[in-house]
Amino acid sequence: MIRLSEHLPIIQVLVPLFGAILTAFARRGTTAWAIAATASVLAPFVSAAMLWTVFETGRPISYVMGSWAAPWGIEYRVDLLNGFVLLLVSVIGVATISYARKSVAAEIDAHKQAWFYTMYLLCLTGLLGIAVTGDAFNAFVFLEVSSLATYVLIGLGRHRRALLAAYQYLIMGTIGATFYIIGVGLLYVVTGTLNFADLADRLGPAMDTQARPILAALAFMTVGICLKLALFPLHAWLPNAYAYAPSFATAFLAGTATKVAVYLLMRIFFSVFAIAIPASALPVTEVIVILSVAAMFIASFSAIFEENAKRMLAYSSVAQIGYITLGIGLANQLGLSASLIHVFNHALMKTALFFALGAIVYRTGLVNISQLSGIGRRMPLTIAAFVVAGLGIIGVPGTAGFISKWYLAMAAIDKGWWWMVFLIVASSLLAVVYVGKFIEVAYFREPGPDVAEAHEPPISMLLPLLALAFATVYFGIDTRLTTSVAEAAASALLGGAR
Amino acid sequence: MITSLTPETLALLATVIPLVAAVLIPLFARHPNLRETVTLTSAGLLAWVVWSLLGPVLAGARPELIGVEIVPGIALAYRVEPLGLLYALVASTLWIVNSIYSIGYMRGNNEPRQTSFYVCFAVAIASAIAIAFSKNLVTMFLAYEALTLSTYPLVTHKATDDARKSGRTYLLLLIGTSMMLFLPAIILTSVLAGTSDFTSGGILDGRATPLVLGVLLALFVFGIGKAAVMPVHFWLPAAMVAPTPVSALLHAVAVVKAGVFSILKIVVYIFGIETLREAGTANWLVWLAGFTIIVASLIALRQNNLKKRLAYSTVSQLSYVVLGAAILTPISVVGAAVHIAGHACAKITLFFAAGAIYTAAHKTEISELDGIGHKMPWTMTAFTIGALAMIGLPPTAGFLGKWFMLSGAFETSQWLPVAIIVASTILNALYFLPIVHRAFFRSPDHVPLDPDEMPLGAASVGAAAVRPHAHDGGRKDVDGDGDGDTHDHDHGEAPFPIVLALSITAAMTLALFFYPEVPLSLANAMIGR
Questions:
Q1: Does residue B25 sit within a domain?
Q2: What value of ipTM does the predicted structure carry?
Q3: Which of A124, B13, B34, B336 has CB 3.0 to 4.6 Å from B321, enough for a Cys bridge?
Q4: Are A328 and A336 in contact (CB under 8 A)?
């Protein structure tokens, strides 16, 4: 009799993977949805159990594949950092899957629905896999699994431009993945290992003799991952991908895909390179800080002038990713905590916002802001949830977004960059403008003919939306879960105690 | 049973009651009478709860409630201290009167969306109470933003283009200044002092250089846009598009007073009067407050629209409180605190009167008010009392605040504040007394005749009665409702609830002069006397 609890890391990945295979055999959308829902609902229990174990014991969970001990075999290793990310991804998965049924039924052709759910589960498998693995090459494999599934998810959008958007992302995503694997290859040549922990041990000594390939690897991996997480100016693929993907896919990807890439970047930077090589060897963090600030402002301005609501939120995502990477660039305890907290908070808020848009699309088929006049009076709960999540994006106190900004500002002060505080708050003012623009149209104009028939979405779409809006407020007030886990994970990252 | 409520419970109830009201009000959306009963009951309960705190606080109790920690070392927390209680008393007491008035006004003018109006109002009051009782800067900031957001729908209540434009100014200016300046100031303070709790004597003594203190003070003063110190005052005149009860309670009491109250509380409990005086880098605040007082008065002088004139008068009067804080003597700070209460009662009376005139006579411009005192004697008498308080004449509440501020300035030989107060008193008289004069001592015949009013036209063509009033057609309709109501020249007083409300507040304005014990003792307790 095997004890299930010992195998949680692999179960985390296998459940959605087997789910994907099963859904591929399903012919009807509803059956496929039921399978996908079962797999998705199981996931957070697994990740919560692991996070709890790590938190309680204070030691990471190590799982060796097929009893091949690390570093020869593939090791799955769950510490606070990736336990946190796993929980986030799987929770967003549950929220989106309950939202999915009606939304997918409306937006995807009946005969493609089962495939759609297969792709969703594969994507989930990939994202969870990146987070759970302790092996650089295995991470690449999962990166590709999730990316390939994502291309299909985006390409299934109703608009013909969805294909173009998927193709754009395919090209960019492939370049990113290739850069990453080039980096992994260089590291393998230098050290002969692929295990993150082992790499960290061996890179230090290797640095004396083979500095150049190691720095090249760092550069390649940074650029590759930054492409995936859409750091400005490598974000060009994101607005179209988010805008033309089916509503469900947009909400899911916005909450998970970039967040997992952020995790990978942190892992590579702090668990692998930061231990081994001096920070002065390559000005990576400085560059990231500059690009992050640029993202916070330029993408926010793009959002202000965007007419398509989904693209507006997509640009907002690029700006918000700027906050996350800024924390990484600050590279201190508070900065990393801020990043992790914002990874979590932004996932909640942005998924809620895309849910709200998806609900509007479900009822009206419209995404252009100017056509949505008076929608607030037709769909009061939906738009109210949008407003709450929007306030979170702005960073109003009492919402989760405020907590992220507070930590980020503290991190900047901790580094002695007082002026950065003003940049952080100034950029959140830009969010007031684009969120406000939507709210004005939604509430202040008389309902036009386009939205005359609109009303609240079905309960299966409304509930997850309201739950996330509630979470936006809840995690702005009760911050114990997010801050304690994030701070501990940040300490672990900086202390090198992986 | 009643005595078993601890001060801590009372402090909690003070926030819970209006929030419960905000939840209950929509349930009775279809039964306006029940809905208004909810508002009035909760207003009454709230005032009772807040007044019940007076005894314990004067006896030295400082009830505390500590909630969850939202950022490291800083929890959402309440601590009822004298100054906060004073502000809470003002806000909660005037909410009752204002609710009576709102009912008369909203029904009298057939305003739409009354349910959401009352909901936002209740949330705004809850936020105001939370600002009053906040134990630390972060709690205050949270409530401050909640107040901005909950009043935004009230400002834009009419949902016209004008309202939307003003709403933008309102939101962007208030959120903008608070995010860009107030929040960084809070963050810097907590880093420098290691805490953000309001503490007697301040928390920054010896923690920062004089220069940093000066900069920090500037961040706070300009960051708290609600105090409407120039040049961040634009939102206040813009917000006058709101229905009059909103202007009255929010822009004479809750919102603007939240601003100056916050500044006062920060000067007294974060910086500490002593610390700031020794630093010597806060002198500019006297100049700034003086500049705002004088310039806003000059602008008020030029306004023909009654509500606009009142708005600029508010901008000017608010800076008295800032000035009182800037003089940096215990007695002037007491004056500032007393002025918060006195100005609130007087200004709400003036707004009530303006709304009464609009409801009864559909007049918004000062030039139309000739002889109106004879038709609306109660309203205009109350208006006169309010105007006297603005000028600072006895026997009104306005006198006390000015008196203490002047004493503080004399005590420390600061002649600039003295000059400012004297000059502004003259200006206040110049822009309020003519209105009183018009109302009581000029007969309506002085008005250039309207086509409507020509006896022949009116007698021969009955249609004149349905034509919109010529004044309304030609001028910008600030209330933005664009109503084409028939203009009844034989109007009398406004509906009873309105007259009742404004009479009560006028009486309060007088009563505060004769019985200033409550605000005075609270203000003295604030500075530890």
A1: yes
A2: 0.83
A3: B336
A4: yes
Name which residue leads in pLDDT, B70 or A222.
Answer: A222
Helix or strand run (H / E) with residue B65: strand B64-71
Chain B within 8 Å of A479 (Cβ-Cβ)? Answer: yes
Angle between helices B137-155 and B161-177 (to 10 degrees): 170
Task: Please classify residue A285 by burial: count the beta carbons closer than 10 Å to its beta carbon, then call 0-12 exposed, 13-18 middle and 19+ buried.
Answer: middle
- Work out the pLDDT band at A226, boundaries 50, 70, 90: very high
Give me the average pLDDT of each 10-residue run along chain B (529 residues).
73 89 86 86 91 87 84 85 90 89 81 84 91 91 91 84 84 88 90 87 84 89 88 85 81 86 90 85 87 91 87 90 87 88 89 87 83 84 90 85 87 86 89 87 61 42 40 40 45 80 88 85 80
Whether the predicted model's global pTM rises above the 0.90 cut: no
- Could you give the number of structural domains in chain B? 1
Q: Which residues of B touch A444 (CB under 8 A)?
A: 156, 159, 163-164, 167
A332 and A257 within one domain: no
CA dist B271 → A99, B221, B329 (Å):
51, 12, 13
- Is the Cβ of A409 closer than 8 Å to some Cβ of chain B? yes
- Is B443 inside any structural domain? yes
User: Does A299 lie in the same domain as A228?
Assistant: no
- 8 Å CB contact of A476 and B70: yes
For B136, phi then psi, to 5°, come to -140, 170
Measure in Å the smallest separation between the Cα of B108 and chain A Cα atoms: 24
Q: Do A483 and B72 touch (CB under 8 A)?
A: yes
Interface test with B, best of A300, A417, A477, A487 (most B CBs within 10 A): A477
**Where is the domain boundary, A280, A309, A329?**
A280
- B contacts of A443 (beta carbons < 8 Å): 159
Kindly report the nearest CA distance between residue A207 and chain B, in angstroms.
38
**Shortest CA distance from A414: residue in chain B:** B191
Residues A35 and A87 placed together within one structural domain of the fold: yes
Contacting residues of A for B67, CB less than 8 Å apart = 477
Distance CA A349, CA A276 (A): 36
Min distance B155 CA to chain A CA atoms (Å): 12
In SS3 terms, B368-400 reads as HCCCHHHHCHHHHHHHHHHHHHHHCCCCCHHHH
A290/A275 same-domain check: no
In terms of domains, do A64 and A184 share one?
yes
Contact between chains at B138 and A421 (C-beta distance less than 8 A): no
Considering only CB atoms, which chain A residues are within 8 Å of B171?
Answer: 432, 436
Contact (Cβ atoms closer than 8 angstroms) between residue B226 and residue B340: no
Q: Are residues A195 and A139 in the same domain?
A: yes
The total of structural domains in chain A comes to: 2
A244 & A314 share domain: no
Q: Is residue B395 part of a domain?
A: yes
For A222-244, what is the mean pLDDT? 90
Looking at the structure, tell me whether residues A308 and A322 fall in a common domain.
yes
Q: Which residues of B touch A421 (CB under 8 A)?
A: 184, 187-188
Instruction: Flag whether pLDDT at A71 surpasses 80.
Output: no
Under the banding of pLDDT at 50, 70 and 90, the label for residue A276 is low
Domain that holds residue B96: 2-449+473-526
- Interface check for A484 against chain B (CB to CB < 8 A): the answer is no
pLDDT, mean over chain A: 88
> Does residue A4 register a pLDDT over 80?
no
B186 within domain boundaries: yes
Taking the Cβ of residue A413 and every Cβ of chain B, the question of whether any pair is shorter than 8 Å is answered with: yes
Residue A131's pLDDT band, with cuts at 50, 70 and 90, is very high
CB pair distance less than 8 Å for A403 and B184: no
Question: Do the Cβ atoms of A444 and B159 come within 8 Å?
Answer: yes
- Cα dihedral A66→A69→A71→A77 (10° resolution): 70
> Are the Cβ atoms of B180 and A409 closer than 8 angstroms?
no
* CB-CB under 8 Å, B156 with A409: no
| Contact state of B171 with A436 under an 8 Å Cβ cutoff | yes
